[in-house]
Design goal:
19 helices; 795 residues; alpha+beta; disordered N terminus; seven-stranded antiparallel β-sheet; binds alpha-L-fucopyranose
C-alpha cells in the first residue's frame, strides 16, 4: 500500500480542469445533529451508524480514515448447552446451608456443583475495518464531521488547497449494506486507496475486479478455560465481507490486496458482510453466498435511490416522535463543547438531542429479524470486550428496551422477543438439570448461544429471575399494542412456562412458613448468595400477575391461573426496615452507607410498578430513603436508572439532577464499578467503559418525566399521567407521538411548567383516562378517534 501511496502523491501534482463544487453546506442544525470540528481521536469519539445488523464507527480522519465495522452475529464459540447435568442434586443443600446462615459454605458448594459448563459465556467480536487513504489530505481546512439523526447519515467535510471533499456514510436496512460516498468539488480531485483488514488472527484479503474480499474465521474466546477447568467451546463461525467500489470519472487500479481510485470526482463504496450463523443451534450458513446475494440486490440501484430508500426506511421509525425543549445560542456549538458545559448551562436542547440519540441507537442496533442490542448495541472494536459485550440480563439488556414501546418503536423490540423465545427453549434444560423443574429459567447473562445457566461465580451468577424480568417486555408489548395474536402465540407461552418454573421453585420461609420465598439467589450483585432477595419477589409477583391476566384475556388455563393467584399472595411482601428504607433482603440488614450501583429492590418502583407515591405512599417513602442512602452517583447505567426511579417518585427536579449527573463528560476507558459514569464525546454512555444501556435508560427516563401509563384504575384501565415529573429546568416543551399503555398516542405542549394542550389518538378504542396534577378526565373512545384536550377540561 505504501508504494501506491507515493504514486498517488505524484499523480496529485498533475493539474486538473476544475469546476467549483457547490454541494457542501456548512451550517449545522444542532437540534438533531452531533457535530465536531475535528476528527475522532479515539473510538468513543467516532460516530456510530447501523442498520440493526451491520454497525460501523466513523472516525472522520482526513488522510488515513478507518471505518471500523461489526456484524452482529460474529461471536466466539459455537452452539452449546451450558447446563450442568445433575446440578439439582445440590439444590436442597444450598437452601439448607443458607437457612442455617452458612453463606460461605453455600457459596463454595454453588461454585463446585451448581454452575454453568464452562463457568462463563462467549463473546461478541469485532469484524473488520475499512481503510481509506487520501494522499495529501494531512493539512485541511474548514473541517467538520457530523451525524444527522434526522436521516441517519454521517458526513465529513473539509478542504484541501481550495478543493472541497465530502464523505457520506450510512448503514441501510433495506439494502443490508454500509454505503460510503466520497466526493470532491472538482473533477479528477478524488484519489484514494481502499483496503480491508480484520483484528482476527485467521483471515485473508483478496481483490476481484472492483471488489475487495475479506474472509475469515472467528478467533477463539480470549480465555481458553473457564474457572472450573472446562475448555470454552472452540469458535466455529466463519465470516466474509465484500467492499465493492464504483467511481465516477478517473480510473480504478488493483494493487495487491487493495484498490486505488485515481482522478475521480466521486466514488461509492458498498460494504456487505455476513457470517455462517443461522440461529443459536445452527451455524451452517454460507457467508460468501450471502455477500454475493447482498451485492446482487444492490445492482442497478443508483446511489441517490439507495440513500432515499435508507432515509425513508429510517424516518418511518424515527419521525414518529418529536421533542422540542427549546434551544439557544449554546445549542449551536460543537457537541463535545456542549457536553462539557452542560452541567453549568443545562441547555435543554442537549437533553432533547440525547433523548433522540437513544431512539437513533435503538433503530440502528435492533430491527425485526436481527439480534437484540447487546451491552454495546452492535458497536464493538475489541476481541476481548468488556463483559464480553454480551447480554447481562440482571438490568442491562432490559434497560436497552425500556424506551422501545413508549417512544413508538415497538418493532425494534422484536429481536428481544425472539431472544426470550430462544431462552424459553434453552432454559428448559437448565430448569430440569439445575432445579429438577418444568418450565424455563435464565440467570444473569446470556449470549448468542442463549446460555441460561448460572455463570461467573455463585455469589451473583445464581440469580434465577433473568428470564422472568425479560418476559415483562412481551407483556408490555401487549399492553401498548393490544395485539391478541402476539399475546396468544408469543407472549403467553413464554409467560406461562416461566411461571410454571417459579410455581415449583418458591419455598416456604422457615421462620414464617405461610410465606413463600425465592432462593438460592442474590440481590444483583450485592451481598452474595441468599434466600429471599426482595427483587426476586417483586419480579415473580409481576410475572404471575401478567400470566394470570393473559390467561384471563385468552380464556385459557383457569386452574393454572388460580394456582398462580394462590401462590402469588403468599410471596413475601415488600418490607420497610429500621432506617425507614425499603429492605433489600428478608432480614433488616441494609447498610445506609452502601453506595452500590444496583438498587435491585427498587425494581418494584421501576420498571415493576408495584410501588408508587399514589398507590403505595409508605413504600414510596421507603424507596426515597433507600435512594438517598445510595446517593446520586454510580456507573452510567446506574445514573440512568436513577432518572427513572426519581421520575416514578414524581420528583422531577431530582430526576433532572440525575440526568445532569449522567450528562457529564467521561473519557475513562477503564472499568470502574463505583463511579465516573457519564457520556463520551460521541454521547455514548460510559459505565465506564462504553456500555449502551445508559443511553436507552436516559431516553426512557426523559419519557417517565413526561408521561407515565403504568397505573390502572379498578377496572384495569390505564391512567395516562401527564407531565408527572416535569423538571423546573424544562419549563417549556412540545412532544408528539409518545405511546401510552392501552393503545394511545399522545402529543403534549407545556409552557411555564403548565400543560397547555394535549392531543390523544386512540388506537384501540379503549377508555381514556388522563390525569394531570391530581385531576382526571375520562372518555370512552373509538379506535382511530383523536381527542383534543385543554387544561380546563380536567376536574
Ligand atoms: C453487571 C453490572 C456491571 C456491568 C455488567 C455488564 O455485572 O453490575 O456494572 O454493567 O453487568
Amino acid at each position: 500500500m505504501k508504494n501506491l501511496h507515493l504514486l498517488l502523491v505524484l499523480s496529485l501534482t498533475i493539474l486538473f480542469s476544475c469546476t467549483r463544487f457547490s454541494g457542501i453546506e456548512k451550517k449545522v442544525d444542532s437540534s438533531l445533529t452531533l457535530w465536531y470540528d475535528k476528527p475522532a481521536t479515539e473510538w468513543t469519539e467516532a460516530l456510530p451508524v447501523g442498520n440493526g445488523r451491520i454497525g460501523a464507527m466513523v472516525y472522520g480522519e482526513t488522510e488515513s480514515e478507518t471505518i471500523q465495522f461489526n456484524e452482529e452475529t460474529l461471536w466466539s464459540g459455537q452452539p452449546h448447552d451450558y447446563a450442568n447435568p445433575g446440578a439439582h442434586n445440590y439444590l436442597e443443600d444450598l437452601r439448607r446451608l443458607l437457612w442455617e446462615g452458612k453463606q460461605h459454605e453455600a457459596h463454595d458448594l454453588g461454585n463446585r456443583h451448581f454452575m454453568s459448563q464452562p463457568f462463563g459465556q462467549l463473546s461478541y467480536l469485532p469484524f473488520g475495518n475499512i481503510l481509506l487513504n487520501f494522499p495529501g489530505h494531512n493539512e485541511v481546512t474548514s473541517y467538520q464531521r457530523r451525524l444527522n439523526l434526522e436521516n441517519a447519515v454521517s458526513t465529513v467535510f473539509y478542504e484541501v488547497d481550495g478543493v472541497q471533499f465530502k464523505r457520506e456514510v450510512f448503514a441501510s436496512a433495506p439494502a443490508q449494506a454500509l454505503i460510503i460516498r466520497l466526493e470532491a468539488s472538482e473533477n479528477g480531485a478524488l484519489n484514494f486507496v481502499a483496503g480491508l483488514d480484520s483484528p482476527h488472527s485467521d483471515y485473508e484479503v483478496s481483490v476481484d475486479g472492483n471488489q475487495i474480499i475479506l474472509k475469515g474465521k472467528a478467533n477463539n474466546y480470549h480465555h481458553e478455560r473457564g474457572r472450573d477447568g472446562t475448555k470454552y467451546p472452540e469458535s466455529k463461525l466463519t465470516f466474509e465481507a465484500r467492499l465493492r467500489i464504483e467511481h465516477d470519472g478517473g480510473g480504478l487500479v488493483e494493487y495487491d490486496d487493495s484498490i486505488a481510485v485515481l482522478k475521480a470526482r466521486k466514488a461509492t463504496l458498498y460494504l456487505v458482510a455476513a457470517t455462517s450463523f443461522v440461529n443459536y443451534n445452527d451455524i451452517s450458513g454460507n457467508p460468501e453466498q450471502r455477500c454475493i446475494d447482498y451485492l446482487a440486490n444492490l445492482e442497478g440501484k443508483p446511489y441517490q435511490k439507495l440513500k432515499e430508500d435508507h432515509i425513508s426506511d429510517y424516518q418511518n421509525l424515527f419521525n414518529r416522535v418529536s421533542l422540542d425543549l427549546g434551544s439557544s445560542e449554546i445549542s449551536k456549538r460543537p457537541t463535545d463543547q456542549r457536553l462539557s458545559s452542560f452541567y453549568e448551562d443545562e441547555d435543554p436542547s442537549l437533553v432533547s438531542l440525547l433523548f433522540q440519540y437513544g431512539r437513533y441507537l435503538l433503530i440502528s442496533s435492533s430491527r425485526p429479524g436481527t439480534q437484540p442490542a447487546n451491552l454495546q448495541g452492535i458497536w464493538n472494536d475489541r476481541l476481548a470486550p468488556p463483559w464480553d459485550s454480551k447480554y447481562t440480563i440482571n438490568v442491562n439488556a432490559e434497560m436497552n428496551y425500556w424506551p422501545a414501546e413508549m417512544t413508538n418503536l415497538s418493532e425494534c423490540a422484536e429481536p428481544l422477543f425472539s431472544m426470550v423465545e430462544d431462552l424459553s427453549q434453552t432454559g428448559q434444560n437448565v430448569a430440569k438439570e439445575h432445579y429438577n423443574l418444568e418450565g424455563w429459567v435464565a440467570h444473569h447473562n446470556t449470549d448468542l448461544w442463549r446460555g441460561a445457566a448460572p455463570i461467573n461465580d455463585a455469589d451473583h451468577g445464581i440469580w434465577p429471575t433473568g428470564g422472568a424480568w425479560l418476559s415483562q417486555h412481551l407483556w408490555w408489548h401487549y399492553q401498548y399494542t393490544g395485539d391478541k395474536g402476539f399475546l396468544k402465540n408469543r407472549a403467553y407461552p413464554v409467560l406461562k412456562e416461566a411461571s410454571r418454573f417459579f410455581a415449583g421453585y418458591l419455598v416456604p420461609w422457615p421462620e414464617n412458613p405461610e410465606w413463600l420465598v425465592s432462593g438460592p439467589s442474590n440481590s444483583p450483585e450485592l451481598g452474595g448468595l441468599v434466600m429471599g432477595p426482595t427483587m426476586d419477589h417483586q419480579i415473580i409477583r409481576n410475572l404471575f400477575a401478567n400470566t394470570i391476566e393473559a390467561a384471563e384475556i385468552l380464556e385459557v388455563d383457569e386452574d393454572f391461573a388460580a394456582m398462580l393467584k394462590n401462590k402469588r399472595q403468599k410471596i413475601v411482601p415488600n418490607q420497610i426496615g429500621k432506617h425507614g428504607q425499603l429492605q433489600e433482603w428478608l432480614d433488616d440488614v441494609d447498610d445506609p452507607n452502601e453506595k452500590h450501583r444496583h438498587i435491585s429492590h427498587l425494581w418494584g418502583l421501576h420498571p415493576g410498578g408495584e410501588i408508587h407515591p399514589i398507590t403505595t405512599p409508605e413504600l414510596a417513602e421507603a424507596s426515597k430513603v433507600t435512594l438517598s442512602h445510595r446517593g446520586d452517583g454510580g456507573t452510567g447505567w446506574a445514573r440512568a436508572w436513577k432518572i427513572n426511579f426519581r421520575a416514578r417518585l414524581l420528583e422531577g427536579d431530582h430526576a433532572f439532577l440525575m440526568l445532569k449527573n449522567l450528562m457529564v463528560p467521561s473519557k475513562s476507558q477503564e472499568t470502574n464499578y463505583r463511579d465516573r459514569g457519564g457520556l463520551y464525546f460521541n454521547l455514548f454512555d460510559s459505565h465506564p467503559p462504553f456500555q449502551i444501556d445508559g443511553n436507552f435508560g436516559a431516553t426512557s427516563g426523559i419519557v417517565e418525566m413526561l408521561l407515565q401509563s403504568h397505573l390502572r384504575d379498578e377496572n384495569g384501565d390505564y391512567y395516562q399521567d401527564l407531565l408527572p415529573a416535569l423538571p423546573s429546568k424544562l419549563p417549556n416543551g412540545k412532544i408528539s407521538g409518545l405511546k401510552g399503555r392501552g393503545g394511545f398516542e399522545l402529543d403534549m405542549t407545556w409552557e411555564n411548567e403548565d400543560l397547555v394542550a394535549v392531543k390523544v389518538k386512540s388506537l384501540l378504542g379503549n377508555k381514556l383516562i388522563l390525569r394531570y396534577q391530581g385531576k382526571t378526565i375520562a372518555r370512552e373512545t373509538t379506535a382511530g378517534e383523536t381527542l383534543l384536550i385543554g387544561p380546563g377540561d380536567f376536574s
